[in-house]
Specification:
alpha+beta, five-stranded mixed β-sheet, four-stranded antiparallel β-sheet, about 450 residues, 15 strands, globular
């Protein structure tokens, strides 16, 4: 008997990755007779776990039973499991360690199984050694292939007014993170971006076998010989690539032992900055330091000396992306707490429609829901920056959204919470998906 499951309705193994958002699947049979099957987690005590939905409108269940017609198929949905009482999720720790068992109803005979991965972004301080090393290997491979420098060139000081000091600060950086993550997943599909939770000590992050430690008085970052980052060289347009990452501890405060030196707002305080986006973000002008963009975001950056403390050089230090991953996680958690995912809701994002194409201020192009975002749109010249590095946003084997030229609106409902068609296929381990007031 030949029965198999297609994740994301796709027979390509590159599509066997899910998050907390319900994912469309299909079970097929080439048998001449109908077969009644039961789907469940085959290894419920280890690896990632899933829940099942008969269709998009049903509640999640730990198993699913149905009849597959002769030489036919049945559609269903799955999602990574999150305990609806505790909010604790069950993500994977290894590639495709989640196993769905297909058994014959009545006899209990195993008809087949399907391996997949519940792939979500995790706290860098709690990664397994394997998760940490796969991330490091992938980002170093990307750098050695010459692709990482394009990310650095997107964030030069000359580009800053396109991406900072405006409401689009959060959506733009969400796309920026997704750009890197998709590039890393082309190298190693099991990788996600880890986040540095900068309001807590991170002893497992700031060590020689991960993000390194200052090795001399100047702050030159020291890595262990086994860390692939040991040969990382800073590469910045117009500066060159002849030196190591510089990162000293501001005020002598070691983030392995303390929260980031200048961060004032912890997670709870950040979530309480305001219950509408314009207050939560609250940096409507470039000089306004309020909202999340000021603290904890800006405060985390300047908790170090070195590349990461300056806009034009910050991405040259890969810690930048772990810092911004936490900023994005805080926005994602704020969205979940306040149920603000709908792009047309001004409380979720205030600038609706299209911006003024003649400027890049708060009322300008690139800052409104219907605007495409630079540099992925390939547009250069006033009021955009004078270059557009990197090409379009990378594609994904899991989804066609947001496409190579993302709009601001695409970044708001990132998990398909309001519209599952907009699922960008990334989630955070501690930000669940809610369906009909139930945590999936």
């Amino acid at each position: 008997m030949s029965v198999k499951i297609l994740i994301n309705n796709n027979d390509d193994p590159k599509a066997d990755y899910i998050t907390w958002c319900p994912t469309p699947c299909k079970i097929t049979s080439d048998e001449p007779n109908a077969v009644e099957v039961v789907l469940n987690n085959k290894n419920p005590n280890q690896g990632g776990q899933v829940v099942f939905f008969q269709n998009q409108m049903t509640q999640p269940a730990g198993s699913l039973q149905f009849i597959v017609p002769p030489n036919g198929s049945v559609d269903f949905h799955i999602a990574g499991k999150v305990d609806d009482q505790t909010g604790v999720g069950f993500p994977s720790v290894e590639d495709k360690d989640t196993i769905i068992g297909i058994t014959e109803a009545g006899t209990g005979n195993l008809l087949g199984e399907k391996a997949l991965m519940v792939r979500v972004r995790k706290n860098a301080n709690t990664l397994t050694i394997g998760e940490r090393d796969r991330f490091l290997d992938a980002i170093v491979d990307l750098n050695q292939a010459g692709a990482y420098v394009e990310l650095q060139n997107m964030h030069l000081s000359s580009n800053s007014r396109e991406i900072h000091g405006r409401s689009c600060f959060l959506p733009w950086h969400r796309a920026f993170l997704l750009d890197l993550e998709r590039k890393l997943q082309e190298i190693e599909p099991s990788v996600t971006l880890p986040y540095w939770k900068f309001d807590e000590p991170a002893p497992n992050v700031f060590r020689r076998d991960f993000m390194g430690v200052p090795g001399d008085a100047a702050g030159t970052v020291d890595f262990s010989g086994a860390n692939p980052m040991v040969n990382w060289r800073v590469e910045i347009l117009g500066v060159g690539s002849n030196r190591r990452i510089m990162r000293s501890y501001s005020g002598g405060i070691n983030p392995a032992l303390s929260r980031a030196a200048y961060v004032q707002n912890d997670e709870g305080q950040t979530l309480n900055l305001g219950d509408i986006f314009s207050v939560f973000s609250r940096r409507a002008t470039f000089l306004d330091p309020g909202g999340i963009e000021g603290d904890p975001h800006g405060s985390a950056h300047v908790s170090f000396g070195g590349e990461i403390s300056s806009i034009g050089t910050a991405p040259a230090d890969p810690l930048f992306f772990m810092l911004h991953c936490n900023v994005d996680r805080l926005w994602a958690k704020w969205q979940w707490v306040n149920e603000l995912f709908e792009p047309i809701n001004p409380d979720a994002y205030p600038n609706q429609g299209a911006g003024d194409p003649t400027n890049n201020s708060e009322i300008g192009i690139g800052n409104f829901t219907g605007d495409t975002m630079w540099p992925w749109n390939g547009v250069s010249g006033n009021p955009r920056p004078n270059h557009a590095p990197g090409g379009g946003l990378p594609t994904s084997p899991l989804t066609n959204v947001p496409g190579p030229q993302p709009k601001v609106e695409h970044m708001i409902d990132y998990q398909g919470q309001h519209s599952r068609d907009n699922n960008l296929h990334f989630s955070y381990e501690d930000v669940p998906y809610t369906f009909d007031n139930t945590i999936v």
